[in-house]
Amino acid sequence: MEAPPKSLNHVKHIVLILSGKGGVGKSSVTTQTALTLHAQGYSVGVLDIDLTGPSLPRMFGVEERQVHQSTNGWIPVQVCPKLYLMSLGFLISNRNNSVVWRGPKKTAMIKQFLQDVCWGSESEPLDYLLIDTPPGTSDEHIAIAEELRWANPDGAIIVTTPQQVSTADVRKEINFCNKVNFEVLGIVENMSGFICPYCAECTNIFSSGGGKQLSESLALPYLGNIPIDPSFVELIELQDNNTKGKSLVELYDKCSLKPIMNEIIGKILQKNLPSRI
Ligand SMILES: Nc1ncnc2c1ncn2[C@@H]1O[C@H](COP(=O)(O)OP(=O)(O)OP(=O)(O)O)[C@@H](O)[C@H]1O
Ligand code: SF4
Predict the structure, then answer these.
(1) CA 126, CA 212: separation in Å to the nearest integer?
(2) Is 92 near ligand 1, meaning CB less than 6 Å away?
(3) Which of 19, 68, 72, 77 could bridge to 26 as Cys pair (CB 3.0-4.6 Å)?
């Protein structure tokens, strides 16, 4: 009988984060989704399968950490209790070099990432596994779809920006989800307006509302829009120094994007999707 990878035996929910193009803030949305779920008491694992540009170790401020092998497989890096990260960034020797691999090598790596990482345990199952994917629909996507074929993931969050929504890339991403049977949990419009660092007023620099229109035209849920908040960038950059010993979790607690993310994640939680285990 076909079965999902054993490493997912103790994972209750699997959510993928996709985007049609690079640089729209997919990794930031993944990071914030993890922090938001964690703040609500869930245990969260994040798997970074963006093999050519793994940015999550830096975002979570754990770039210098290492993954360890156990008899059951790789142990992901613990960012803090109940928050874990696995990324190729931990395995490559020079983190400033992006990997240039052909399809079969990428496919093999993703297979290993899905099969050989210990997520949760019988006594402490993982509530959410978030999978951050590269932009577009590449070898990595085909490999992950193959690995998750029998794993019953909750579905995918699609991240776009106001400038991107009218392009065909988002539709391609949605077609991909339809083909591989990933439910589209909803569309998020990131970089939608700019929060002034002085008065916290949000100004729409580009036109906004495209994400909502797109979801309406495709009859898909709209999860919300996230403005550009310079304090979020600062929070990521400041982690190593000048944080007065505060962790990323504590810093994000004060970020103005947190209540916005709470609403976005609330819409997914409201779906009450059944646990896989
Ligand atoms: N809402 C936001 N407010 C402030 N900065 C943001 C926001 N979203 C993204 N950024 C910043 O924009 C940059 C690009 O974001 P990110 O790395 O998340 O994009 P990405 O889509 O994952 O890119 P890639 O496809 O290259 O991996 C980062 O420096 C990130 O901190
Ligand atoms: S939003 Fe207000 S405080 Fe911010 S730059 Fe504009 S005028 Fe100044």
Answers:
(1) 32
(2) no
(3) 19
CATH number at residue 168: 3.40.50.300
User: Which pLDDT band, with edges at 50, 70 and 90, does 92 fall under?
Assistant: confident
CA pair distance 244, 238, nearest whole angstrom: 10
The one-character DSSP state at 19 is E
Q: How confident is the model at residue 211 (pLDDT cuts 50, 70, 90)?
A: confident
In a domain, 103, yes or no: yes
CB atoms within 10 A of CB 138: 15
Reported pTM: 0.94
- Report the separation in Å between the CA atom of 206 and the middle of ligand 2, taken as the mean of its atom positions: 17
Which residue CA neighbors atom 7 of ligand 2 most closely? Answer: 199
Q: How far is the CA of 197 from the centre of ligand 2 (A)?
A: 8
DSSP character at residue 205: S
275 within some domain: no
Q: Which atom of ligand 1 is nearest to the CA of 30?
A: 18
| Residue 60 within a domain | yes
Q: Is 140 in the pocket of ligand 1 (CB under 6 A)?
A: no
Ligand 2 centroid distance, CA of 193 (Å):
13
What is the C-alpha to C-alpha distance for residues 207 and 192, in angstroms, rounded to an integer? 8
- The number of the ligand 1 atom at minimal distance from the alpha carbon of 31 is 18
Position in ligand 2 atom list of the atom nearest CA 197 = 4
Residue 133: its pLDDT value, please?
92
Region 259-267 average pLDDT = 97
Instruction: Provide the domain limits for residue 26.
Output: 6-265
Domain-embedded: residue 272: no
Read off φ and ψ for residue 221, nearest 5 degrees.
-65, 140
Q: Residue 6 CA to chain centroid, in angstroms?
A: 22
